[in-house]
C-alpha cells in the first residue's frame, strides 16, 4: 500500500505533508521549492489548465477564467448570502446549477467547485510525489470543523476526481492540535481551544486532551468568514472612492479588479507587521475621457480595523457559544492555539485574548500546521504511530420539520460520534394512514434555512383516533457522518428505514464522467497530469438554467 499523505485544502493556499522515517510530520516541497500551493486554477482559451502560482500570475491578464476561493463555494447554494456577495466582486462568473449549487463559468462552460478543487488536489498530490519519489494515491484531507455533511462529501468527491482515495476527512482544528503536540505536553487532562481563522472560513473548537485522546467538547464557527473578507472590505472602499472621483465603475473591468484585489491582499499582509503602507496602482483604468487613472493611496492598520470592525465582532459569538456548549469558562482553558493566516492580524489576536482571557500560542506556522496535523493522523491510520486517538462531534443540529417551517432538534450539535438519538411521535389526525418525516441539518429554528438531508415514510398505520398511534424515530450517525434513520410503529412493530449518505451535489455518474473526460484530455497532451483539457459540459444537469444577465445575482 502507498503511504497516506496529509492535505490542507485551503481557501487561499493549500499544503501537503507526510511523516518521515522517524514518524515525524514534515511539509513536502516539490521541484518548485514552494511550501504552499496557491489555491488558484486558470484556464487558457485553448483549454490548458494552470494551477497554483502559475494560475495566480494570470489573475490580471486572464481574470475571467482564473478561479480562486473555491472552498467558499464547494457544497454551497448559489443563493446563499455570502455566495451572492462573493459573486458581486469576483472577476469570474459564479452561476447556478439546476440543483441550485454554486458553480463557476469558464470560457462559457459551467464547472463545478469539486472539479476546480480537484485540480488543486492533483497539484498537491504531484508535489508529494516529487518530494517522496513514489506514487501517492491515499490522503487525509482537512476541512473546517463547521462544514456540514454536503461540504464534506463535496470535498471527498474532489479527491476522487483528483485520483485520490480520501481515507478520512479530518477537522482542521483537530489536525492543528495534533501538530502542536497538545497530547505530549504535561500530565493529566488538558483543556484547550483551537482558534482557526483562514482565508475563507472560521472555526473554533474546544478540546479535552488526556492520555493521547483528543475529545472535541464543542465546535463552532462561521463558514463564510475569513481573511478574504478583510481584503474585500478594502477593495470595496477603493472601488467606491474611484467611482466618486472619476465616475468609473471598476467592478465591470476584470483586469482592474484583479490588480486591486492583489494590492489589497498585499497591503493587508504588510499591515500585519507595519502600521501604515501605500497602495500604488498606475494605469488602473481609464476615466470617462480616456485618460489613465493612476491610483495611489496610503492605508493604515487603524483604517482597516475601522472598516472591518463588524468582521472582528463576528468572531466572538461562535467562541462564546462553543464555551457554553462545552460548559466551560475561559479561565478553565489551559491554552489557545492559533491557526490560519488571518490570525497574524494584530486585532484578531487582541480579540482572542479578550475572549479567552489569555495570550494565544503562536508556536507553529499557521499556514502549515493543519497539513502537518493531517500527516500525523495519516501516520496513525497507517499504523506508523499510535500516540493519539480522536473523538469527534456533530458540527450541526440534526432534526425534523414540524408544521410549516418549524425545526425540532433530535440530535443536538456537538454530540460525540458515533451517536444514536430517539424521539417519540404520535399521530395528529383520526385514522392517519402514514407519517412522512423530513430530515434536516442546521442551527436555524426556521427549517427553510437549514439543509434538507432526506425523508423517511412509514405507511399502513393502524386506524385510530389522534394520538393513539405512536411512532419511534431512531437516528444514528457513524464516524463517517453517515446518517441512518428508522421509524417504527410501536404497536405493530412495522418499520421504515433510510440510510442517508452525504451528497456533495454531484452524482457518482457525473464524477465518473469527469474522471473519464480528464483522462481523455490528458492523453491528448502526452499524459501530463497537470496540463491540458478543454472544459466541457459532461451531463445535461450541468446546463445553467439562469440567463447570463442573472448569473451574478
- Average predicted confidence as pLDDT: 87
State the name of the first-level CATH class of the domain at 4-170 and 507-539: Alpha Beta
DSSP, total strands: 27
- What radius of gyration results from the CA coordinates? 25 Å
Key structural traits:
553 residues; alpha+beta; Nucleotidyltransferase, domain 5; Actin, Chain A, domain 4; Substrate Binding Domain Of DNAk, Chain A, domain 1; globular
Could you please describe the fold and organization of this structure?
By secondary structure, the chain is of the alpha+beta class. It has 13 helices and 27 strands. Among the domains are: 4-170 and 507-539, Nucleotidyltransferase, domain 5, CATH 3.30.420.40; 227-310, Actin, Chain A, domain 4 (Alpha-Beta Complex); 398-500, Substrate Binding Domain Of DNAk, Chain A, domain 1 (Sandwich). Strands 1, 2, 3, 4, 11 and 12 form a six-stranded mixed sheet that branches. Strands 18-13-14-15-19 form a five-stranded mixed sheet. The longest helix is centred in the first third of the chain and has 20 residues, at 113-132.
Amino acid at each position: 500500500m502507498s503511504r497516506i499523505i496529509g492535505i490542507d485544502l485551503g481557501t487561499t493556499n493549500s499544503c501537503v505533508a507526510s511523516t518521515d522515517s522517524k514518524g515525524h510530520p514534515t511539509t513536502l516541497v516539490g521541484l518548485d521549492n514552494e511550501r504552499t500551493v496557491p489555491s488558484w486554477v486558470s484556464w487558457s482559451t485553448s483549454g490548458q489548465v494552470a494551477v497554483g502560482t502559475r494560475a495566480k500570475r494570470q489573475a490580471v491578464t486572464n481574470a475571467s477564467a482564473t478561479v480562486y476561493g473555491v472552498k467558499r463555494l464547494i457544497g454551497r447554494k448559489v443563493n446563499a448570502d455570502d455566495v451572492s456577495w462573493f459573486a458581486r466582486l469576483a472577476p469570474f462568473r459564479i452561476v447556478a446549477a439546476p440543483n441550485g449549487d454554486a458553480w463557476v463559468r469558464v470560457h462559457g462552460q459551467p464547472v463545478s467547485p469539486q472539479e476546480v478543487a480537484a485540480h488543486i488536489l492533483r497539484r498537491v498530490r504531484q508535489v508529494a510525489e516529487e518530494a517522496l519519489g513514489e506514487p501517492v494515491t491515499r490522503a487525509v484531507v482537512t476541512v473546517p470543523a463547521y462544514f456540514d455533511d454536503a461540504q464534506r462529501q463535496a470535498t471527498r468527491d474532489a479527491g476522487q476526481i483528483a485520483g485520490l482515495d480520501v481515507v478520512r476527512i479530518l477537522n482542521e482544528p483537530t489536525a492543528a492540535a495534533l501538530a502542536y503536540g497538545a497530547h505530549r505536553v504535561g500530565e493529566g487532562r488538558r483543556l484547550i481551544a483551537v482558534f482557526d481563522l483562514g482565508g475563507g472560513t472560521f472555526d473554533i473548537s474546544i478540546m479535552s486532551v488526556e492520555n493521547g485522546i483528543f475529545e472535541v467538547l464543542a465546535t463552532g464557527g462561521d463558514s463564510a468568514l475569513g481573511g478574504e473578507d478583510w481584503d474585500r472590505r478594502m477593495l470595496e472602499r477603493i472601488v467606491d472612492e474611484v467611482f466618486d472621483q472619476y465616475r468609473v465603475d471598476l467592478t465591470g473591468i476584470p483586469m482592474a479588479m484583479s490588480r486591486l484585489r492583489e494590492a489589497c491582499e498585499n497591503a493587508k499582509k504588510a499591515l500585519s507587521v507595519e502600521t501604515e503602507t501605500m497602495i500604488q496602482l498606475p494605469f488602473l483604468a481609464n476615466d470617462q475621457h480616456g485618460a489613465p487613472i493612476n491610483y495611489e493611496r496610503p492605508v493604515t492598520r487603524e483604517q482597516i480595523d475601522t472598516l472591518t470592525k463588524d468582521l472582528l465582532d463576528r468572531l466572538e459569538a461562535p467562541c462564546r457559544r462553543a464555551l457554553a456548549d462545552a460548559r466551560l469558562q475561559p479561565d478553565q482553558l489551559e491554552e489557545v492555539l492559533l491557526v490560519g493566516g488571518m490570525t497574524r492580524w494584530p486585532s484578531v489576536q487582541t480579540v482572542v485574548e479578550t475572549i479567552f482571557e489569555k495570550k494565544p500560542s503562536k508556536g507553529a506556522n499557521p499556514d502549515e500546521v493543519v497539513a502537518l496535523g493531517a500527516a500525523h493522523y495519516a501516520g496513525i491510520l497507517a499504523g506508523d504511530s499510535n500516540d493519539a486517538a480522536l473523538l469527534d462531534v456533530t458540527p450541526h443540529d440534526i432534526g425534523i420539520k414540524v408544521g410549516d417551517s418549524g425545526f425540532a432538534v433530535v440530535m443536538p450539535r456537538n454530540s460525540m460520534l458515533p451517536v444514536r438519538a430517539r424521539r417519540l411521535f404520535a399521530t395528529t389526525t383520526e385514522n392517519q394512514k402514514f407519517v412522512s418525516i423530513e430530515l434536516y441539518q442546521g442551527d436555524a429554528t426556521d427549517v427553510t434555512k437549514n439543509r434538507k438531508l432526506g425523508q423517511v415514510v412509514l405507511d399502513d398505520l393502524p386506524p385510530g383516533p389522534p394520538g393513539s398511534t405512536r411512532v419511534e424515530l431512531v437516528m444514528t450517525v457513524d464516524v463517517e457522518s453517515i446518517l441512518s434513520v428508522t421509524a417504527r410503529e410501536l404497536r405493530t412493530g412495522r418499520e421504515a428505514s433510510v440510510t442517508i449518505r452525504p451528497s456533495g451535489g454531484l452524482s457518482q455518474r457525473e464524477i465518473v464522467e469527469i474522471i473519464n473526460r480528464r483522462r481523455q484530455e490528458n492523453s491528448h497532451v502526452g499524459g501530463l497530469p497537470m496540463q491540458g483539457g478543454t472544459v466541457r459540459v459532461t451531463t445535461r444537469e450541468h446546463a445553467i438554467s439562469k440567463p447570463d444577465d442573472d448569473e451574478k445575482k
